[in-house]
Amino acid sequence: MAIRSDGLLTKKRILQSCVKLFLENGYHQTTMQQILKDAQVSASSFQNLFQSKDGVLLELVDFMFENQFSMARHVAGEALPPVYVYAAETALQITLTELNENLRQIYLEVYTQERPLAYIQRATAKELYPIFGPYQPELTEQDFVELEYGTSGLMRGYMASPCTADFPLERKLEKFLTLALRGYKVPEEELQKVLAFLGGLDIRGIAQRVMEELFRQLAMRYEFSLDGLLPPEK
Questions:
Q1: Which residues, at least 6 apart from 182, have a Cβ–Cβ distance to it below 8 Å?
Q2: What's the pTM?
Q3: Would you write out the chain's pLDDT as a tens digit for each of its 234 residues?
Q4: Is 63 exposed, middle or buried (0-12, 13-18, 19+ CB in 10 A)?
Q5: For residue 98, which of 26, 180, 174, 159 has the smallest C-alpha distance?
Q6: Which among 123, 131, 147, 126 has a CA at the least distance from the CA of 61?
Q7: From start to end of 107-146, where are the E strands?
Q8: Residue 147 and residue 184: Cα distance in Å, rounded?
Q9: How many angstroms separate the CA atoms of 110 and 196, rounded?
Q10: Half-sphere exposure at residue 130, Cβ-oriented, CA atoms within 13 angstroms
């Protein structure tokens, strides 16, 4: 039991260090030497738990995906159709990449590396079938897996293009969701209702809470602030 407890503490310490260093320096700029020094762990201990830096990324993806859908379900509530959950969750993902350039780099890496991307595609496809199945009852669960290949590429494309004065966050979310929901055959009238619902959310504040929950669960104190990419709300 003592060995297992020590292992869990070491794992948490590594995750704390990686989140901090990834956000401060960027995923690519963070070296293994920096992680080992900050977490105060040996290379062998790290490798036993994660094998590589990419292994840490996969661990964080698992948490962030679950936390994003949990927050989206809370935001949409039980009265609204499931399509609202999808809209809130995908809007959260895109908004998170606008909080900080290093966070954008992390998400782009997730949508590029084979293992994290495969996890995202499988997990999302499981959510898509009950959400969009009623709009296309002739499709199977496998069909939605294949559709998610395209949607995940669409997501990465929007994440990779930073918001500008001419392309603010609200416009980016509207464009992505219009393409995605039309692709899943959501009726136009309902699509417009979903966009109106999303427009009424404090999506920046919700995204900030997602990050705060990450830090809370890692039992860490770390100041995370917007770096000027998002304009202040009026």
A1: 188, 191
A2: 0.85
A3: 334 556 778 888 898 899 889 988 999 999 999 999 999 999 999 999 998 888 898 888 887 888 888 889 888 888 899 999 999 999 999 999 998 899 899 999 999 999 889 988 888 888 899 999 999 999 998 999 999 999 999 999 999 999 999 999 999 999 999 999 999 999 999 999 999 999 999 999 998 888 887 777 766 555 555 454 444 444
A4: middle
A5: 159
A6: 123
A7: none
A8: 9
A9: 29
A10: 8
Joined tokens for residue 143: 């069909």
Of 21, 43, 41, the C-alpha closest to 31 is: 21
Residue whose tokens read 């199977």:
140
Domains within the chain, CATH numbers bracketed: 53-217 (1.10.357)
Amino acid, res. 227: D
The encoded tokens of residue 20 equal 């901090």
